[in-house]
Amino acid sequence: MASAGMANLPDLKILLAAPRGFCAGVDRAVQMVERALEKYGAPVYVRHEIVHNRRVVDGLAAKGAVFVKQLDEIPAGTQQPVIFSAHGVAKSVPADAANLNLFVLDATCPLVSKVHREAERHHANGRHVILVGHAGHPEVIGTMGQLPPGAVTLIETVEDAEALNIQTDMLAFATQTTLSVDDTAAVVAVLQRRFPDIEGPYKEDICYATTNRQGAVKMIATQSDAMIVLGAPNSSNSNRLVEVALAYGASRARLVQNAADLDWEFLDGVQTLGLTAGASAPEELVQEVITALSARYTVTVEEIRLTDEDVTFKLPRVLNAA
């Protein structure tokens, strides 16, 4: 499709990655907050950002969601719902919520919960768990918090894997769901070479949405003069998309939060622009960027589709009840 545009605007071809944007886990988490607000009224309390995107968080806050960092910020004795974010939480958090008699709805992505259960299984079988992930990320904090202190060792890089010094042969590994597929494969390869008996997950921990979004970026990076990834600075999967674009042929790539953040100098000389969105970024941000670009360029958009996604996750039964 082409913009109506004005005469003499430079041409810009946008290669639009698909799949992009919301994954099933993010969609479920956002729906849970919206449904809770409809059923129970405001306020609905949410521990941490429900997903890593400012537009989504601000939109829910405008409807009556109250975002808190810790449970003790929630008024004592409230009967209003308290929702845990899609990234998952340590076991101590629901325990604390129970002690405070809070009404909890857990929006943890089912694919993150799968990693939690695997870590528990490995621990129950006497194995020390090596977790590949980013220190300080909420998902990593939640996964490590499923097991007793000292039961999980966190590593981030191939160098960490090479330097790992563990005094047991009973090992297993798990990974954060939003990592670079290629980087994680390299780390796992080192673990498997150094510890041949290490156990892995039944099915890869990196989620389908992360894998698909990175795959779509790989398809368009080599054809693009530059790449824009819509997402939040604290979004792991969005940052990985920038890295993948650069690794697979884009000469420049940048994370952008919204159309207002567009850097026009960054686009100087660009004739073909790759565009995608991280798993927490709503499609409206993509369309706003295309609209902003159409004011300065004669834009054509070609969607490059890797695959179709049909994954959905059910809402908790309590939110489906009338």
Please, could you describe this protein's structure?
The chain is α/β, with parallel strands linked by helices. The chain is 37% helix and 19% strand. The chain has three domains: 11-22 and 208-305, 4-hydroxy-3-methylbut-2-enyl diphosphate reductase, catalytic domain (Cobalt-precorrin-4 Transmethylase, domain 1, 3-Layer(aba) Sandwich); 24-109, Rossmann fold (3-Layer(aba) Sandwich), CATH 3.40.50; 111-194, 4-hydroxy-3-methylbut-2-enyl diphosphate reductase, catalytic domain (Cobalt-precorrin-4 Transmethylase, domain 1), CATH 3.40.1010. It starts with 10 loop residues before the first strand and ends with a helix. Mean pLDDT is 96; it is low at 1-5.
Number of domains: 3
How much β-strand is present in the residues? 15-25%
Regarding quaternary structure, what we see is: single chain
Unreliable spans? 1-5
Query: Can you write the helix and strand succession as a string?
Result: EHEHEEHEHEHEHEHHEHEEHEH
Spatial arrangement of strands, main beta sheet: 10-9-11-1-12
Helix content range = 25-40%
- Characterize the main sheet: 5 strands, parallel
CATH class of the largest domain: Alpha Beta
- Number of contiguous helices: 11
Number of DSSP-assigned strands: 12
CATH topology grouping of the largest domain: Cobalt-precorrin-4 Transmethylase, domain 1
CATH architecture label name of the largest domain:
3-Layer(aba) Sandwich
Q: Rounded to an integer, what's the Rg over CA atoms?
A: 21 Å
CATH superfamily grouping of the largest domain: 4-hydroxy-3-methylbut-2-enyl diphosphate reductase, catalytic domain
Content-based structural category = alpha/beta
What value does the average pLDDT take? Answer: 96
Distance between the termini: 43 Å
Shape category: flat
